[in-house]
Write a sequence for this structure.
C-alpha cells in the first residue's frame, strides 16, 4: 500500500496563500518530531497545525468513523490499509520514514539487559504494546524471531504509554521504538539484532474528507523535503 520516491520535494515557500487550519492524525511515536515539524510548517505557510497523537490503529478507527482530519501518518502499513480500504485516502500513501525497536531500560541499565532473553527472568516486569498496535505487532514478531516467550505485565495502547511504564519505574523494560527511547532522558535503548527484521514503514496520506487539502498536500511535501527529513533523521528515524 505504500511507496517512496527517490527525490525529495522542496519545502513550500511562505506567502503562497495556503493559510487556514490543518488537522494531522499521527502515530504516538511521531510526537516530538511532528511537533517540531509543525512549528516549522506554521512559520513557513501561515497554517495553524493541530495534532492528534495516539496509537495508529485507534487513529485509523477514528478516521473511518468520521473524525475530521486532513492528514494521517501511521506507524505501519496495516492501520493505513484500513483507511485506504474504507475509501478515506485521497491517493496512494507514501512511506516517509522507517523505525525499529529497542529494549527501553532505566538510565544506566541497572539490570544489565543485553538481549531479549534477558527479559524472561521470573522477576522481570516487561511492558509491551498491545498486538493490534504497530509497536506491539513488531515486538511479537521480534520475540518470535528470537525464540523468546515472555508474558508482559501490561499491554499498552501506544508506544508512549509503554515507555512511560519504564520512566515511572513500574516495569524493568519495554519494547519501544528507537526514536522514543532516544527522546526520553530517563531511559536508554538497548539494541538487539532481531529488530532489524521487523523494521516498520511509516506511511502518510492526505485524507479524502480533508477540510484543507491544499495545506494537507503541502504538509506531506514538507515531511519529505530536506528540512523535514533532517528533523526526522535527527530523531533517529530512517529516511528512505
Amino acid at each position: 500500500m505504500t511507496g517512496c520516491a527517490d527525490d525529495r520535494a522542496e519545502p513550500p515557500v511562505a506567502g503562497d496563500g495556503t493559510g487556514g487550519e490543518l488537522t494531522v492524525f499521527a502515530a504516538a511515536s511521531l510526537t516530538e518530531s511532528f511537533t517540531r515539524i509543525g512549528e516549522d510548517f506554521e512559520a513557513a505557510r501561515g497554517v495553524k497545525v493541530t495534532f492528534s497523537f495516539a496509537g495508529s490503529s485507534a487513529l485509523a478507527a477514528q478516521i473511518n468513523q468520521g473524525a475530521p482530519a486532513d492528514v494521517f501518518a501511521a506507524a505501519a502499513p496495516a492501520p493505513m490499509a484500513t483507511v485506504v480500504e474504507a475509501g478515506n485516502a485521497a491517493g496512494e500513501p507514501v512511506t516517509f520514514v522507517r523505525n525499529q525497536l529497542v529494549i527501553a531500560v532505566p538510565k544506566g541499565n541497572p539490570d544489565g539487559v543485553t538481549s531479549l532473553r534477558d527479559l524472561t527472568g521470573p522477576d522481570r516486569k516487561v511492558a509491551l504494546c498491545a498486538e493490534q498496535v504497530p509497536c506491539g505487532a513488531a515486538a511479537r514478531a521480534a520475540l518470535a524471531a528470537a525464540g523468546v516467550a515472555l508474558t508482559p505485565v501490561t499491554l499498552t495502547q501506544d508506544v508512549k504509554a509503554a515507555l512511560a511504564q519504564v520512566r515511572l519505574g513500574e516495569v524493568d523494560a519495554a519494547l519501544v521504538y528507537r526514536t522514543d527511547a532516544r527522546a526520553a532522558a530517563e531511559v536508554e535503548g538497548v539494541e538487539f539484532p532481531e529488530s532489524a527484521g521487523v523494521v516498520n514503514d511509516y506511511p502518510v496520506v492526505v485524507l479524502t474528507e480533508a477540510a484543507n487539502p491544499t495545506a494537507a498536500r503541502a504538509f506531506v511535501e514538507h515531511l519529505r523535503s530536506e528540512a523535514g527529513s533532517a528533523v526526522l533523521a535527527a530523531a533517529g528515524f530512517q529516511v528512505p
In short: The first strand starts at residue 21 and ends at 27.
